[in-house]
TrEMBL record:
Pfam families per record: B12-binding
Species of provenance: Streptomyces termitum
Lineage, highest ranks first: Bacteria, Bacillati, Actinomycetota, Actinomycetes, Kitasatosporales
SUPFAM superfamilies registered for this protein in UniProt: Cobalamin (vitamin B12)-binding domain (SSF52242)
InterPro entries reported for this sequence: Cobalamin-bd, Cobalamin-bd_sf
Name the UniProt record assigns to this protein: Methylaspartate mutase
Domain B12-binding: 24-162
Molecular functions per Gene Ontology: cobalamin binding; metal ion binding
Stored Gene3D superfamilies: Cobalamin-binding domain (3.40.50.280)
Length: 176
């Protein structure tokens, strides 16, 4: 009997004879060129992997051109930008423009989060500007803990729910 492979994203399993069903997303986790913090990236990688996604973590201080080149090469299902050094807002605006300028990345889901400013205020204005620049979700510290996992579930309905008691990031505000 002819066998049909069903390729969605990610983790592989079977639902019938020969059927290959995959769940989860290929995700690029990155920070911006100015930011040398790394534990935020490790945290996000672990969280995403726990939720059933596969992560390429580009590490600290990623130059814009390298980020764009790697995303174009890997064609991920989601790009997650994290920054905590206080320069994430201007760096994020620049990175979004660079990514969205590439036709093959123009529609790739793209989010940013962390500590994006150097003041506790202005999160709403930052969020609006980042969404206008091309991000699909902005998750600043201090927002709803469930917002990022909910965003991921909407993108990849086959993904795993968080384990009981698993840490979730402090986040806020997705566009969708
Ligand atoms: C360790 C540390 C460093 C180390 C980093 C070492 C390393 N390998 O990572 C060193 C010493 C290098 C460093 C340097 C600097 N640091 Co520093 N650092 C910290 C510190 C103490 C802990 C950061 C950390 O590892 N946290 C653990 C991780 C897991 O948590 P997190 O980063 O907060 O991320 C969480 C959330 O933000 C969220 N999140 C993050 N990104 C994203 C993305 C998405 C999509 C989502 C959903 C969630 C999410 O998820 C994580 C888990 O909850 C913080 C203070 C603090 N207590 O947070 C300051 C801090 C981040 N640093 C700060 C600053 C200012 C600097 C320097 C500019 C200092 C200087 N003058 O040189 C430099 C910047 C260097 C650079 N080029 O980026 C400030 C940033 C201020 C701001 N954003 O308003 C902080 C907040 C300290 C402070 N209170 O002033 N730092």
């Amino acid at each position: 009997m002819e066998q049909h492979a069903v390729e969605q994203h990610g983790e592989t399993g079977t639902t019938g004879p020969g059927a290959v069903v995959t769940t989860g997303l290929d995700v690029v986790v990155t920070t911006v060129a100015s930011d040398s913090h790394t534990w935020n990236l490790v945290f996000l990688q672990l969280l995403l992997e726990e939720l059933g996604h596969r992560v390429t973590n580009l590490g600290a201080c990623v130059p814009d051109a390298l980020l764009v080149a790697e995303c174009a090469r890997l064609a991920p299902g989601l790009i997650v930008v994290s920054s905590v050094n206080g320069h994430g807002f201007p760096d994020g605006l620049r990175v979004a423009a660079a990514l969205r300028a590439r036709p093959e990345l123009a529609r790739t889901p793209l989010v940013i989060g962390g500590k994006l400013g150097i003041e506790g205020t202005g999160a709403d204005a930052r969020r609006r500007a980042l969404l206008a620049a091309g991000f699909d979700g902005v998750f600043e510290e201090g927002g709803s803990p469930g917002a990022f996992p909910a965003f991921l579930r909407a993108l990849a309905p086959g993904g795993r729910p968080p384990l009981d008691g698993a840490p979730v990031p402090v986040v806020s505000g997705a566009r969708r």
